[in-house]
Amino acid sequence: QAVKLRSRRPWPRAGAGSRIVARAGGYKVAILGAAGGIGQPLSLLIKMSPLVSALHLYDIVDVEGVTADLGHCNTPAKVVGFTGQEDLAGCLAGADVVVIPAGVPRKPGMTRDDLFSINAGIVKELVEAVADHAPGSLIHIISNPVNSTVPIAAELLKQKGVYDPRKLFGVTTLDVVRANTFVAEKKNLPLADVDVPVVGGHAGATILPLLSKARPKTSFTDEEVEELTARIQNAGTEVVEAKAGGGSATLSMAYAAARFIEASLRGLDGDGDVYECSYVPSQAAVPELPFFASRVKLGRDGVEEVVAAELRGLTHFEARALEALKPQLKASIDKGVAYAQQQP
Ligand code: NAD
Ligand code: LMR
Asked: Which residues form the Lactate/malate dehydrogenase N-terminal domain (predicted)?
């Protein structure tokens, strides 16, 4: 059976009359960290989604203003703001998708792993609340270091007895969005046609674009492969340096997260043809790595299939890069698991 290798429909234009008809009442999306650099534009994009009927915004600061502001947009989703830990239950009750962009961003000179000490605790607090109040929801983790925060979440959900590996995602869509943009620019291709799978993880050398699997089929010189791979791997740092202390990618990240949320909702809605890359708990692609970013098929219960076949027939460059990333990714996974297991 032929496998479609991309999420079929891009983010729909507002009012374009998507073919998808939302289930009665639409979906409830909760965004935790909604007043932040990513949270605000992401909330706006989700407010525009025809699939969403309720948008719950949570943050420890400033959420009232964001809620009042967004609430004036004449799109159907009803926006409700929540703040303070005691409000988490109300925010999360009945959520279909919970998105977590809460946490501190990098400054120049930092690695994503440098964020671990602060963000691990934030993710812990929020994932435990999701386990208690929205145990059946899809959980999208944006907070860095994604290579470790997703394993932390998995362990905590296990401890709470509500772990479903099909429903936990590290959001790596921005790597795909960047790869598509850079390849289209380099090879002068129409942007809307380009689709480059990005596998592995979400930090430095663990970000592995599979240029040999790019659609449309495109040939690259060895120099182009090296240059494009390095640019995609360092794109986050490119933004961190350009912002010069003002944070990391927010607008492109919001765009990418909105694309991933929309894809997930289409999957929940029964569209049988939704594929995106994501960092998921599965050993189907690389048996020795319990978490790995792969292209996945999204369905009514989250991940329906990991497209492991995409890792076959790699070029020498890609195969070497895959071998090289394994120890780094494994160390980040182990660090996250150890952190969660040490928690009281
Ligand atoms: P930001 O500082 O602008 O916003 C973070 C928000 O989280 C703030 O509003 C803050 O009040 C909130 N927050 C902090 N602790 C909280 C808690 N306990 N509960 C709820 N909210 C809390 O940062 P940002 O630029 O939006 O980035 C957020 C995170 O996303 C960072 O860790 C960053 O590294 C990561 N990020 C990931 C990707 C990716 O591709 N996965 C891309 C860009 C950024
Ligand atoms: C990104 O890729 O832009 C994010 O992971 C943020 C960062 O720190 O680079």
From this structure: 28-170
